[in-house]
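ARCHIVE RECORD
Type: protein–small molecule complex
Small molecule: (3S)-3,7-diaminoheptanoic acid
Source of inputs: curated submission
Record status: active
Notes field left blank by submitter.
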Amino acid sequence: MKTDTPPTIYLKDYTAPAYLVDTVDLDFVIATGATTVSATLAMRRNPAVAAQPLVLDGEELETLSVAVDGEKVPFSTTPTTLTIADLPDAFTLHTVVRIDPDRNTRLSGLYRSKDGYFTQCEAQGFRRITWFLDRPDVMSTYTVTLHADKATYPVLLANGNPVASGEEADGRHWATWNDPFRKPAYLFALVAGKLDGLFDTFQTASGRSVQLAIYVEPGKLDQCPHAMAALQKSMKWDEERFGLECDLDHYMIVAVGDFNMGAMENKGLNIFNTKYVLARADVATDVDFENIDRVVAHEYFHNWTGNRVTCRDWFQLSLKEGLTVFRDQEFGADLHNRQTARIREVRGLRAAQFPEDAGPMAHPIRPASFVEINNFYTSTVYEKGAEVIRMIQTLIGRDGFRAGMDEYFRRHDGQAVTCEDFVAAMAAASGFDFTQFMRWYNQPGTPHLAVDSVFEAKTGRYTLHIKQSNPRASDNHPYLIPIRIALFDAGGQIIAGSDRTLLLTENSQQFHFDGIAAEPVPSLLRDFSAPVVLDYAYTPQQLTLLLAHESDPFNAWEAGQRLASTLILDATAAIAAGQAPVWPASFVDAARRLLQTQAERGAAFVAEALTLPGESTLAEALDIVDPDALHAARNSLRRHLAEQLEGEFAGLYAGLAPHGAYTPSSEEAGRRALRNTCLAYLLELNTPAVRQLALQQFRSADNMTDQFAALAALAQTECTERETALAEFYQRWQHEALVVDKWLAVQSGSRLPDTLATVKRLTGHPAFDIGNPNKVYALLRNFGANLARFHTPAGYAFLAEQTQLLDGKNPQVASRLARCFDRWKKFDGERQKHARLALESIRDHQGLSRDVLEIVNRALG
Ligand code: B3K
Ligand code: ZN
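STRUCTURE (tokenized, with ligand):
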């Protein structure tokens, strides 16, 4: 049976709210089986809008009473609205509802997790707590009282400052919090739980003292210091880079193991997935430590970009998300390693956002319509959104960008605004005309640039001819695209004066360089100055020169990726045609030279440069993907490098051995990354000696980075050491939930042919819990990203079945799982037949959520 078509919401239909809420008083009586929420709202008509009935939002609320100015009034309800007509211009609305957080498996609104009760209100979770105008342009100040059993829930928290607390009968207690800042309902939060706290303070530049707290499950306090340090560093960084000081007296972070996404920036009371708080060297990897820095910073930075200035409506999501991702990227680059940070950002963009922008879910960073807003917390809104902000900075310079930020806050502090408002502030501060640039906000799809060059020896003129196109856009108007470039001479030096930023504004445009003595090598799109695909007919010699000499680390890395991509894609075609792949000696030589330069170029860079482009990124370059041939080609190149460079890899592996106890510094992390890259290449040889080496590293490592790297490499290799390591790992870490997630992910991401059978078996293992989003992501979604193992008839049927199962519990997470099917039309006819059947089976599932339905309808569309 088909689910009814849910309505589509359009940006063009936006209208201002008919009523405003000045103050919100909430009283929560928390008890097992039911929580009672009493709400007192001081409301008035919005004078700017014509008189109309009040329509409040609600979901799964049991309404116990409704009163206006202390009197019962007539009202009507549907499952999602409560309507009251004939209201005075200003009034107090009092409602009482009952909700059931213990049975809230969607993890949206108020829900139960192991250690207590938690909330998640963005985007539309507040309406699952009480009747309200649940939209971001309705901003109010909140006073919240919680009542709960004292022994079971000793910690009672809400946004803002503690006002009063006390004891009640029957071993219960209460606490009242007041948040003096006006905020939209999506930033509301409360927590009632048994939690340990780590406390510290931060002194702001103007001398105010902010009380900091991180609350976690009892017994985990020794995994909190890294997050606390990250918070303090972010607070300092935002003062220095953007002049933004913390406005709060209390800043709290609470970690919870059941959480749909990474973290949530609720005003003064962030709620985090444990994954982005808990870290200790023996349980968290270098990448985990760095991610925690970035996510803690991201949520803190939202306090200005998102909370002080928020979104007018959910179409403007990138206003806060793109900007805040850009800010956390910059923070991460300053804190760790700017060069590899940029490389990793682009690697991530190409693995996730480019495919999204080329597939059924393609949308502009500011979408024009949606069915379910939760489906638009995407890598387009976040990561491409951040690239758009980065381009603004490139166009007006760092100082211009800072002046634009100052202007943005001067104009809009305390308001709910649009992307136009942000760009207008940037324009006012810099004098730059962003009219054409707005196309980046309004069109889907990745622009393609085709670049040709002509050199005239006679005149010394070098000309670049650049054409842009974007077949996904609704028209063929050109984008404004900043293209950083430099020209290199045959000796690998930049030709003086050739280093500049070209502004491409036409569909086809020429750029001249005069006084050039000999045909140069162009280095195009340095530092990835725009989120585009760029084609230029580079020769392998030119790329080898750039890989060796380009001083912009991004484009040096890019040259290596271009070399490898061409080889792997050619080999894919050869393998599909039954031929053996050919690997030129020049590529091996270039890799050898890279290994020799790790002292000068940094181990972290060399590790990135030796990592071949991923299969999902490579697949985007193919019209029809043969996942088996692509997989075989990429593996064959890895093995070829291992065979040719065995001595170099082994030498470097030994040379980079840790000299002392683990420290998480970026330099040490770089050494570990390169050493573990060497180990993974060596394991391609699958000799008993290398397997023993990996097992020995696995057993003796004093940190999770090295232990997990050895496990991950073994997990890709058919051997008894693999099974030994997997068993020992689980045995040792079965009580650390986040480490168990790694154990699941390493198996679901394995290239071994029986991976689907393993994943199926693991769904029945005690370590797996379909109700826990982290477990679903680790086992199921990670399997969906495993190109060669997922894209099979049985793989499709399996994930379709799991998506349906999950949809009944948690539609948001189910919908993310359904996204694994996005690229199904890129595969051959036989695969497409099975993917279609799988998608149709999901679509026809009775009672399917609108979250999953939107994804599946678009995929089938
Ligand atoms: N703003 C939240 C995301 C909320 C997702 C709702 N489905 C986390 C963040 O971007 O910081
Ligand atoms: Zn965010």
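CURATOR ANNOTATION: Residues 371 and 854 are 6 Å apart (CA to CA).
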